[in-house]
Amino acid sequence: MNEDANYDEFFWEILDRKESGDEAYILSKTLKTGFLVCTGMKNELILNDFSIEVEKEISSTDKSITHTYKTMVNSGDTFSIVKYGGYTQSMNHPDAELYNVSQRELNKASDLGFESLLEKQDTAWEKIWYTADIMISGDIKAQQAIRFNIFQLNQTYSGADSRLNIGPKGFTGEKYGGSTYWDTEAYCIPFYMSTKDKQVAKNLLIYRYNQLDKAIENAQKLGFNRGAALYPMVTMNGEECHNEWEITFEEIHRNGAMVYAIYNYVNYTGDVGYIASHGMEVIIAIARFWSQRATFSADKEKYVILGVTGPNEYENNVNNNWYTNYLAKWCMEYAVENIALLKENYPEDYVRIAEKVTLDESEINSWTQVADQIYLPFSEKYDVFLQQDGFLDKELIPAAELSRSERPINQKWSWDRILRSPYIKQADVLQGFYFFENLFDQESIIKHFDFYEPLTVHESSLSPCVHSILAAKIDRIEKAYEMYLRTSRLDLDDYNHEVHEGLHITSMAGTWLSIVQGFGGMRNFNNSLSFDPKIPQNWKSYSFKIIYRDHIIKVFKNHEGCKFYNESDTPVTISVSGKEVTIFNKDLVIL
Amino acid sequence: MNEDANYDEFFWEILDRKESGDEAYILSKTLKTGFLVCTGMKNELILNDFSIEVEKEISSTDKSITHTYKTMVNSGDTFSIVKYGGYTQSMNHPDAELYNVSQRELNKASDLGFESLLEKQDTAWEKIWYTADIMISGDIKAQQAIRFNIFQLNQTYSGADSRLNIGPKGFTGEKYGGSTYWDTEAYCIPFYMSTKDKQVAKNLLIYRYNQLDKAIENAQKLGFNRGAALYPMVTMNGEECHNEWEITFEEIHRNGAMVYAIYNYVNYTGDVGYIASHGMEVIIAIARFWSQRATFSADKEKYVILGVTGPNEYENNVNNNWYTNYLAKWCMEYAVENIALLKENYPEDYVRIAEKVTLDESEINSWTQVADQIYLPFSEKYDVFLQQDGFLDKELIPAAELSRSERPINQKWSWDRILRSPYIKQADVLQGFYFFENLFDQESIIKHFDFYEPLTVHESSLSPCVHSILAAKIDRIEKAYEMYLRTSRLDLDDYNHEVHEGLHITSMAGTWLSIVQGFGGMRNFNNSLSFDPKIPQNWKSYSFKIIYRDHIIKVFKNHEGCKFYNESDTPVTISVSGKEVTIFNKDLVIL
Fold first, then answer.
1. Distance of residue B332 Cα from the nearest chain A Cα, in angstroms
2. Alpha-carbon dihedral angle through residues B69, B70, B72, B76, given to the nearest 10 degrees
C-alpha cells in the first residue's frame, strides 16, 4: 500500500557468462545507470587440510552458474569448500577489461589462500573497531545493537572513493535502488567523520561537489537561473531519480543539508581550506537557489517559501515550513559569511570562484536582504515556531491517544487523512533545533520538544535518533533511552516486519549519534569540541572513541562520573559540561 | 508531459469473431469493467438503385473483419454500398444472447433499408433540433460552433438510460476512459434539462443515486462513518478510477456538485417529489461527509476543511478552499432544509428514509452547528473571499503579464512552480459565484471577477464558459464574447492541438450555457425562471428555445430588444430583467 513506486522494478540484466576451468564469471549491467559488474568465483576443495581435485558438474540458469561437487569422505574426515570471489566494475576498469581484472583478482585471492585472507580481514576490522567500537556495560541488548550497527555502516562505506555514497539500505536490499538521499549529509557524515580519517567525510562532500553541474541543470529545468542549484532528492549519478512531485520538486530542504554538511565538516575538522577549494561553489549555488525560491509576500511583508515538503513527509505542498525557511535563511547567511572569509583569507580562490560563477556584490546583498526578511511562522500562544503556516488549524491530539489499531498510520489511514492530521513522521522543527541547537536556549528547546514530540509517530527510521539526542540534551534520559532502543534494535528485532527489504543503514548512523551526541553530549559548534555525558539508569557504563583533528579521544561514562583519555601525542582542549578542559598527550582526565 | 497516467492503456480485448453469410460479428470486452459488446455488420450493394449480389473476399486481423467486393461497373452507372450495423452490449442482454440480438437488429435494419432508416433518422434529429437549436445571425463562426456543439452533445447522450452518463470526450476519444466526472452535474445537466424532457436530467441524477452505496463504501475506506458518502472523482460503475491522491482523496468539492445538481433540477423542474423519492438519501450521505470532514480549529474557533484540491487543480492540498467550504456549508444547510420539507410534506418518506439511514435529531443539529461556524477565508484589504488560506502570500501578477513563451504554463512550467503561482486553471471562487449568484450582490460579483479573472489562465476547457456567463452578468459583453468564442470553437479550430484525443464534449455544454445563461441571462433560482438578455456587438440577433415545466419558450434577442414566445397551451410566468412577465399560451411578448 505504501510501497515505493519502483517496488517491482528489476535493476539488473545479465550480459554474459563465462566458464574457464575451475572459474565461472557473470557479467551484468545495471539497467538505468549502465554500470557493468563482473562477478567471478572459484572453489577450492580441501580434505583434511589438503587441497584435492574433485570432478564438478556445471549447471546454469539465466542469472546463475552452479558448480556441484560430489565426493566420498570417510567418517572423521574434514571436508571444506573455500569459495573465492573476484568482483570488478566499470567505474574502475574499461568495460572490455572487466573479465580479465576479475580473473586476476580471483587468482590473486586463491593464491593467497583462505588463511592469509582471513588474517588480512582480521587486521582490517581490528583497525576499524579500534576507533569505532562503543562498549556498553549492563545492557546486553543495547551493546549488541550498537555493534551490529557499527559493523553494518563499515560494511557499507569504506570512504576511499568519492564517486561512491551510501544508500539507505546499503548493499542489504534493493529498496531505494542503492541511491543516495540527504541521509548521508544529515546523519552519516558525523559517524564517518568521528570514526575514520577526515578524508572519508571529505569524500562524501566531494561526491556532491562533483555533482554540482547536474544540480545546476536540475534547477534550470525547474525555472531557476544564474547558476542556482537544486540537488536531487534521490540520486545515483547526480540526476534526480525519484518520481513524485511532492518529493522531487518540493522537498527542497535537502539542498540546505548539503551546506550544513560542509559547515559540520569544517567545524569538526577545522579544514577551512575545503571552503576555498570546493565548498564555496556549492554554497553559492545553493544560496542562489534559496534567494530565487523565496518570493516576497506583500501580505506578510516578508519573504516566504511556498509549496514545499519538509522533513516530515506527512505534510505535502505546505507554505513556510519553518525548518526549510530557517535553513534557507541560514544557508544564505553562511554564504555571505564565507565569501567574506575567502576575501580575507583566500583572496586568490575568491577571485577564481567569483569569476567562474560570475558573482557580483548586488547578488550577495540580495541574499542578505532575503535572509533578513524571511518569514518564520511562530505561535505567540504556544511560544513555539510553527511547523508551517496553518499548523494550528489541525486537531492537536497527542499520538499516544490514537488507538493501537490505527498505528502505524501509514498502514491504516488514507493519505489525505495523514496529511490533514498533525502527526509527524520524523523530526521537522526539531531537526532544525538539532542542527542549530547552539542558537536556541534550553527553555526554547524544551518548549519545542514538548510541543512536537507528542505529535510525532516516528514512522521513519530516521526519527527516533534526533529525538533521543534532544531528549538527552534536556535531561529526559528515560525518553532518550526509549528512543535509543527504538532506533538501535530496529533491524535486529524487526519490529516493523520489513527486514526482508534490507537493513536501515543510514538510520544506523543515527543510532551511533544517539550515544555519542545523545548520551555523550558531543557537539562541535563554533569550531570547538564539547561533551556533556549522561547515562541511562540501567547501564553500568559506556565508552566510545572519536578521532578529532589528529587526536583519538576515548570517553568513558558511568554513574560516578566520566573520564577522557587523549591517546595522541599532543594536547587537546575540549569543553565538558560547559567547562574548558585541556587533556595532555597520553593523559587521562577524570571528572 | 501532462498526459493522464493511463494514457497508454488499452481498454478492449477481442473475445470472438463470427462469420455468417453476408454478416460478420466481433465480440469484445472492456478490460477493467468487463462490459461485452457485440458489433455486427452487413453490406448491401446497389447498382443503379437495384440490390445486386457480388462475390466477396473475407480477410481479418486481431481486431477487424474486412469484406472486399470487386465488380465491374459501366461508365454512368451508380454503384452504392450500404453498410448496416448492429450493436448490442451486456448491460441490456445476457452475454450469451449478444450475438443473436445483434444479428436480429442488423437484419431488422437491413430489412428496413437505407431510405427508411434515413427517414427515421431525419425525424429523430428534427425533433432534437426543434428544441435544441440556437440561431445566431451575423456571426457565421459563432453559429457554426454552437450547432456543432449541440450536435455532439446529442450524439453523446440521449438520456433514456440512467445507467449511462457522459464522459468528457463522449465517444470521440479514449482519453478519460469514457468515465464520468463532476462535469455532468456542473455543466451538462442544465443543457439536457432545458432541451429535453425532464426525465433525461432525472436519469443523470438517478445514475448517482444508484451509485450511492459505492460512494458510502468509498468514504468508509477513507475513514468516514455513519453512512457518509464520497462520490468518486472519476467513475464508470461507482468506484473511483482515478489514481492521484491530490485528486481522488482531496478534490472533494465534487461531492457538493452532486447535491447542487439535485437543487438545480428541483428548482428548474419543480419536481420536489424527487427529493422524497431519491434525492434526500444522497443529500444526507453528503451532509454526513462534510460534517465529518470539517474539523474544529481551536486557533480560528471555526470549522475548517484542511487538505483539499479545489476546482482550480493548479493548487493541491490547500486548506480552506473557499469554494469547497462554501459548498460544504450550503450542502449541510440544504440537507437540514429538505429534512424539514420532507417532515412537513412527505412524512411517510421521511420516516422511511430516517429509518433506512438511521438519522437522528442530534446529527441534524450537528450539521447546522458545523455549517453555521464554517470558516470562509476573506481579505479585508481586497474585500473578496480568498481562494484558500495563504492565497495573498503569492505574487499576484496578472496572467497577461506572463510572456507568451511561458504559456500554456502546464506545458512550460514544472508542477511546483504552477502550484506556488497564483494562476488559476479554471473558475474556483468564481465557480461558487456562478452556482450561488443569487446570494451575492452585483458589486460583490464584480469585485471577485476583477480579482480572479486576471489570474485565470483558462487551461481547462471548462473555464471560459463560467467566465463568459459572469462577464455577461456584470455587463462585460466584450469579455463574455471573447470567452464564448474560446469555448465554442475549441475543437473546430483545434487551437490547443489536441483534437486527436477526442472532442471536449462536457465543455460543449458550457458553450450552450454561455449563450443561454450568459447572453440570455437565464436563471432558475428560487423555483422561478428569469432572463436578462444581452447581445454581443457584432451579432445581429440570436434565438434559442427551452423546455420549462411543460412549456416550450422561444427567446429572441436583437439590438432593439427581445421577444418571448410561449409555444405551449398554458400560460407561463417568467421574470425578464427583474420584471415579472406572464406569457399566455401561444402568445408572444415583445420587450
1. 21
2. 50
Q: Which residue of chain A comes nearest to B222, CA vs CA? A: A414
Question: Do B24 and B65 form a contact (C-beta atoms < 8 A)?
Answer: yes
What's chain B's length in residues?
591
Q: Is B316 on the interface with A (CB under 8 A)?
A: yes
Give B297 to chain A, closest Cα distance, Å: 5
Determine how many CB atoms are found less than 10 A away from the CB of residue B127: 11
By CA distance, what is A221's nearest residue in B?
Answer: B414
Alpha-carbon radius of gyration of chain B: 26
Reduced to 3 states (helix: H, G, I; strand: E, B; else coil), residue B566 is: strand
CB contact set of B127 (below 8 Å; sequence gap of 6+): none
- Asked if B297 is an interface residue toward chain A (Cβ–Cβ < 8 A), one would say yes
Tell whether A247 is within 8 A of chain B (Cβ): no
- Cα–Cα distances (Å) from B278 to A162, B165, B205, B275, B352, in that order, read 69, 18, 9, 6, 12
| Closest C-alpha among A61, A76, A75 to residue A24 | A61
**B583, containing H or E segment:** strand B579-583
The residue among A315, A382, A416, A423 with the most chain B CBs within 10 A of its CB, best to mutate, is A416
Averaged over B213-224, what is the pLDDT? Answer: 97
* A376 at B interface, C-beta within 8 A: no
Cell numbers for A473: 540534551
Assess whether the previous peptide bond of A408 is cis (omega < 30° from 0): yes
Average pLDDT score over chain B = 95
Q: How far is B215 from chain A (nearest CA, A)?
A: 16
- The answer to whether residue B413 neighbours chain A at the CB level (below 8 Å) is yes
A565 near B CB under 8 A: no
pLDDT digits (tens, 9 = 90+) for A94-127: 999 999 999 999 999 999 999 999 999 999 999 9
Instruction: Enter the C-alpha cell of residue B433.
Output: 459565484
Q: Is B313 a catalytic residue?
A: yes
Grid cell 465491374 is found at B72
Chain B contact set for A381 (CB, 8 A) = 299
pLDDT tens across A296-348, in order?
Answer: 999 999 999 999 999 999 999 999 999 999 999 999 999 999 999 999 999 99
* Cβ separation A316–B319 shorter than 8 A: no
Kindly name the residue from B23, B313, B453, B459 that is annotated as catalytic.
B313
Tell me, letter by letter, the H, E, C secondary structure of A279-320. Answer: HHHHHHHHHHHHHHHCEEECCCCEEECCCECCCCCCCCCECC
In A, which residues are within 8 Å of B393 by CB distance? 297, 299-300, 304, 306, 319-320, 389
Kindly state the average pLDDT of the residues A426-445: 98
Measured between beta carbons, the chain A residues lying within 8 angstroms of B417 are: 222-223
Q: How far is B418 from chain A (nearest CA, A)?
A: 10
Which of the two residues, A77 and B497, has the higher pLDDT score? A77
Are the beta carbons of A419 and B307 separated by less than 8 Å? Answer: yes
Exposed e or buried b per residue across A183-209, where buried means at least 16 C-beta atoms within 10 angstroms of its C-beta: bbbbbbbbbbbbbbbbebbbbbbbbbb
Least Cα distance to B191 among B243, B265, B247 occurs for: B265
- B445 — pLDDT class (breaks 50, 70, 90): very high
A244 lies within 8 A of chain B by CB: no
Distance CA A490, CA A443 (A): 31
- What's the one-letter identity of residue A180? T
Within 8 A by CB and 6+ apart from B210, the residues are B162, B163, B238
- Whether B463 and B434 have beta carbons less than 8 Å apart is answered as no
User: What is the model's pLDDT at position A272?
Assistant: 97
CA nearest neighbour of B322 among B330, B262, B415, B334: B330
Work out the pLDDT band at B2, boundaries 50, 70, 90: very low
